[in-house]
Amino acid sequence: MVTQFPHDNKANDTMQNNVTIGDKMEKLETIFVDEIPEKCEEGKLYISEKFGISIHLCPCGCGHKSVLNFKPEWSNGWDMTKNGDIVTFRPSVGNFGMPCKSHYFITENRIEWC
Ligand SMILES: [Zn+2]
Description:
binds zinc ion, 114 residues, four-stranded antiparallel β-sheet, mainly beta, single chain
């Protein structure tokens, strides 16, 4: 089965929808998965509790993938607090290895820009 992801190729994305490409996002939608999909959509926070990993595309709109590990055995991982599908990550996420150098907190699915 081939699954189409409308935001996979931003250059070809001419659709009108709720997500404005290139604008900073303020909220992420939690998607619980067993395995992180190869292609992620903007505005979604993929969480695999099985593998202790979370992936989202940088909410600045640059399209870079940000990976957060939250398993307790990873000493430099994040703390994830979960309440249903509302999640909080601590400490902050700093995409300093990316050109945009975005820095933000994920608090109850909201992006708090630093
Ligand atoms: Zn970015």
